[in-house]
Structure formats: C-alpha cells, structure tokens
Amino acid sequence: MGQELTGRFATKVLPVGAQVPPDERERVLQQAGELIRAGQLVAFPTETVYGLGADATNASATRQIFAVKGRPADNPLIVHIERWERLRQVAASLPPLAATLADAFWPGPLTMVMPRSPQIPLTTTGGLETVAVRLPSHPVARELIAAADCPIAAPSANRSGRPSPTRAQDVYEDMAGRIPLILDGGECSVGVESTVLDVTTSPPTVLRPGGITVEMLRRVLGEVQVDPAVLALQPVVGPARSPGMKYRHYAPKAPAWLFEGEPAAVTQAMAAEAKRRLDQGERLGLLVCAETAAALKEVLPARGDQLVWRVPGSRQHPEQLAHAIFTLLREMDREQVEAILIEGVPATGMGLAVMNRLRKAAGYQIVSCHRPAYNGA
C-alpha cells in the first residue's frame, strides 16, 4: 500500500539543531506543526530514533503512517506528548504507578501502556483498548508537539522491517517522496527505541526493552516482569500488545546470523563460518564487539574489500552497541554485503534491548555457541 505514495512529495529536509538561529528554528517548527494539524506526516528526531509523526487524534492521518511505512494495521503506534497535562487527552485513566514512573523517567525513553481515551482512535492503537504513550526528552520533539498542539503518534521513520533511523539521512533513504518534511536534529543519542511498560498489569510488564532498563525500573517499582516475547526465539503469533513485538524488524537487506553464547565459543564459531563464506567468494559483513574483532583479525585471512568490519564498541558497554547497531546495519546495506555475521551480548541491562533488536534483525537465524567446538552452520 505504501508503494502507491512514492513520488507524491518533494521531500524537504530542514535543519533544526542547535546551530540553527532561533527565529529560523521557530519558523521551521511552526511550519511542521501546521503540516501535522493539516493531517500530514512529519519525520522528527527524538532521543531514541527518528519518528514518523501524525496527529494521534486524527484517524485519517494515522492511517497514512501505516500506508507510508507499509506497516501492518495491527501494529500499534506510540503517542508522544510534550507535557504531563496532555496525558489526560490520551489516556482514559491514569494507573497509580504512572505518576511515580513519570517522576523517575519522564521526559525520557519510557513508554507506558494505559487505557485508551476516546479521543485516540483505534487506528492509532492498532485496534487495542490501550494506548502507548511517552514524553520524549529531545527538545525538537517536544517543541513540535507544542507547535502542532496535539499529541503526535510516531513509530520509527523507516519502511517497515528496515533498521530504525538514527539520522535524518537514514529517514530520507526510506521516506523520500513519501512525506513532505524531515526535521534534521542530528544523530539520536540513545539509538534504540523506548522501553514499553504495560502499567495496566500487576506487576507491570516490559513489552519491549529499550533506553530504560529492567534494572532501572525495578529500582523504582520493585517487582517488574518481562514478557516472554522480549527474547523469543521466533516471531510472536497473535495480537501485538506493543510496537516491535510481532513482526520482523530492523532487518538489513542481506541475510544475517546472530551468534550467541560464551565469548570464546562465539569467536571460534564466527571464525569458522567466516572462513567458509570467504572461501566461497562471498562479500561478508562482520558486526562484532571490539574484543571479538581483535581475536578474529588474528585468525581470518586478509581479503581486501571482501570482508567488511563494523565494531560498535566493547562487550562491557552495551550502551555503545545500542547507540550504533541501526546505523551499522544500514552501513552494511550501503556496502552491499551478501551475508552478515553478528555477535550477541549478554541480555542484561541495555544488552536486553540490544539482543531483542538483533534477534529480529537476524530474522531469528540464531547460532547457539557452546563448547565443544562449533562445526559449521
């Protein structure tokens, strides 16, 4: 359905970062707000990833989001607000924990699932009687919502299934001709989408891990459960309670395999598989932690441009991996690799969000690496 919209717009990319003079920034944001009020779509930066925004109260406008992205209609959208007072326009009632969580994590990368207000159409919520809502910390996002004077529904501003965009140029790759305006606020600071927490359950349930870790939530709330779908080994079947639960997401163009397990076994397994694919003449991408890259470079043959390395950071700092993974997956596309081997990390702290994204990016093609030695995929 989204294909029909290609070429409809001469998409503008307008800077709104700190380097832009205040009067020009204000003019651009007012223009963007007018587009939102008119039922159009605008891509804008948040601290997590770039969002594809529409008036959350306008069923026709949010329907356009699904069309432009090629997004299944039962995949709910997150509604963004710029201040606490607007929450009553979005939610029919406020669960007791909402204020506690807002005091601790708003503005920021936490989305709360609450009962839906009648002002939010079922088109926005994917047919659910709950609504996912957050208050972003990025100033451009909040200023845009204020300029539009309405809550803004915004999934990631990419074609459905592609890696989420963390830079305006990523948005342009997927959305040129499909939307009228992209606000360029520079690179996103977190790099993965928000944590989605269902506060209508007892205890609250993490439906999607993100910039606020489970450990951080437990320090504030005590008991917090994690939905089994977060680290599922296969796609979820049935209704999606949260964005990012049901469908394949974050996928590069080339097929990818995710190697999970003890680091030494992962290194050995990746080396064996890389050698096999290089010997077959494949152009291969390796997305690995710094420690594993050092070990692999000692054993893999030098193959010139046949082997593409991307090293997002240390295994000890999963926040570095979270910040970089979508950008590096898109770089693999630009490098036109034929296959990608990805290293997994421990699923704790921010590593839980990283592994949730990587399992989907690999299409659940997971290689479990334990001793004894790996003998090939």
Element-level helix/strand string: EHEEHEHHEHEHEHEEEHEEHEHEHEHE
Principal-axis shape: globular
Give the neighbour order of strands across the main sheet: 1-8-2-3-7-4-6-5-9-10-11
Distinct helical segment count? 12
Oligomer: single chain
Based on the coordinates given, report the CATH architecture of the largest domain.
Answer: Alpha-Beta Complex
Helical content class: 25-40%
**Computed CA radius of gyration, to the nearest angstrom:** 21 Å
Mean pLDDT: 93
- Low-pLDDT runs: 1-5, 373-377
Beta-strand level of the residues, as a percent range?
15-25%
CATH homology superfamily of the largest domain? DHBP synthase
Distance between the first and last residues' Cα: 37 Å
Major sheet size, sense and barrel closure? 11 strands, mixed
Structure, described:
With 377 residues, the chain is an alpha/beta fold. The chain folds into two domains: 2-197, DHBP synthase (Alpha-Beta Complex), CATH 3.90.870.10; 256-369, 3-Layer(aba) Sandwich (Rossmann fold). The protein is built from twelve helices and 16 strands. It has helices at 22-37, 59-69, 87-90, 97-105, 122-125, 139-148, 168-175, 214-221, 263-279, 290-299, 318-334, 350-361; strands spanning 12-15, 42-44, 51-55, 78-80, 110-115, 130-134, 152-153, 181-184, 195-198, 205-208, 225-226, 256-261, 284-287, 307-310, 339-343, 366-369. An eleven-stranded mixed β-sheet has the order 1-8-2-3-7-4-6-5-9-10-11, sandwiched between helices. Strands 14-13-15-12-16 form a five-stranded parallel β-sheet, sandwiched between helices. The longest helix has 17 residues, at 263-279. Mean pLDDT is 93; it is low at 1-5 and 373-377.
